[in-house]
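Please decode residue identities from the backbone states below.
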């Protein structure tokens, strides 16, 4: 299939992919609740004659195309879950379910990957290996990728490729870079234990609110004094809970928030210093601090070879590839990259709102672009592995 044929084939699928995307948009399902979405995807794949492989997932679908000539196995991934957000787009195909919305574009990801399924199925006999499609649940909970890994669906896979829509980029532009692209997203809850008293006699208390306030201030020194200016990290305290009366000093206070970083060494240093600072400052006020970590994904670190193949694919298809600014958002695609080499790209969708906004929308003309890119990249990666070995070799 020539590059011209590939693009024209994707364009021919445009109306179908838009219909699929709008169906998914009308029927959003939250993480690990994607039962109807799963049934819908299975019906589309079966109708297309695509092999569905049962890995025992409760939601989500694993499918395969190719393998008729033997060869390596690669995976393409799309996430399928929605968010607990009330939609405010006013679109004729807006969510039918109150409080649920595809506000992160996973409906776009899924429809685009189906486009790649359809195109790769058409040239199945020519593929130099197998393409495994991961329609993954529960990305928003940062749990789905690990569920797929635990199921065994990544066994035998040489490389994994995924994307996220990017509202800031125009349609036809693809953000591709090796190295860090998205941040590790660690959450925390710090419980500060003191001793309460009447507010009129604070000297008889160990005030957890005062200790918590100083902890918040001290945490801000971790990045400025422990992280090189050549690297980056962010510590944000987003919640403080304590007390229930204006005249009582409470026994406890709780801080919650998030830490973002792009480098595993920096991540390790910041988390270690966080615990030391919280415990030390609390102790200075006679209180105790206990840190509970809320597990998030590690950083998305792209394989250099796969990034090069992605740039080559974009160029031959006539799309524009740019080196994107890394995003401090988290993405559980990173768990796959701890098992096999991976490439995650930003697909330009020319949206007016950022991810997770109740008025989030995107330009659907990006669907055939994404479909053609992933089809072309899958073919290129399989051909490379068949002739020269694998990514990271």
């Amino acid at each position: 299939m020539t590059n011209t044929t590939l693009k024209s084939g994707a364009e021919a699928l445009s109306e179908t992919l838009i219909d699929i995307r709008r169906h998914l948009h009308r029927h959003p399902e939250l993480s690990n609740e994607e039962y109807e979405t799963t049934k819908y995807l299975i019906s589309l794949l079966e109708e297309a004659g695509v092999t569905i492989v049962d890995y025992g997932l409760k939601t989500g679908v694993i499918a395969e195309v190719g393998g008729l000539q033997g060869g390596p196995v690669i995976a393409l991934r799309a996430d399928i879950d929605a968010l607990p957000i009330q939609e405010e787009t006013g679109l004729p195909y807006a969510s039918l379910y109150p409080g649920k919305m595809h506000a992160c574009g996973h409906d776009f990801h899924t429809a685009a990957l189906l486009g790649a399924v359809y195109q790769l199925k058409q040239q199945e006999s020519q593929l130099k290996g197998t393409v495994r499609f991961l329609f993954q649940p529960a990305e928003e909970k940062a749990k789905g990728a690990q569920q797929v890994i635990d199921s065994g669906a990544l066994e035998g896979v040489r490389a994994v490729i995924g994307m996220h829509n990017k509202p800031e980029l125009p349609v036809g532009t693809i953000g591709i870079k090796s190295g860090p692209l998205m941040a590790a997203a660690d959450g925390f809850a710090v419980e500060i234990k003191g001793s309460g008293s009447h507010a009129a006699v604070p000297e008889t208390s160990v005030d957890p609110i005062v200790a918590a306030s100083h902890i918040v201030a001290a945490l801000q020194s971790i990045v400025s004094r422990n992280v090189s200016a050549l690297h980056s990290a962010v510590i944000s305290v987003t919640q403080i809970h304590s007390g229930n009366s204006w005249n009582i000093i409470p026994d406890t206070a709780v801080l919650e928030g998030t830490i973002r970083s792009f480098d595993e060494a920096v991540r390790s240093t910041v988390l270690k210093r966080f615990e030391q600072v919280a415990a030390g400052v609390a102790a200075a006020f006679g209180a105790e601090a206990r840190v509970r970590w809320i597990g998030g994904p590690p950083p998305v670190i792209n394989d250099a070879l796969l990034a090069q193949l992605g740039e080559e694919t974009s160029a031959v298809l006539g799309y524009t590839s740019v080196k994107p600014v890394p995003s401090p958002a988290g993405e559980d695609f990173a768990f796959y990259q701890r098992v096999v080499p991976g490439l995650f790209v930003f697909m330009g969708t020319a949206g007016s709102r950022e991810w997770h906004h109740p008025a989030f929308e995107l330009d659907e003309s990006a669907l055939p672009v994404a479909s053609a890119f992933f089809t072309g990249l899958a073919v290129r990666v399989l051909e490379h592995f068949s002739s020269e070995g694998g990514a990271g070799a």
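Observation: The two ends are 28 Å apart (CA to CA).
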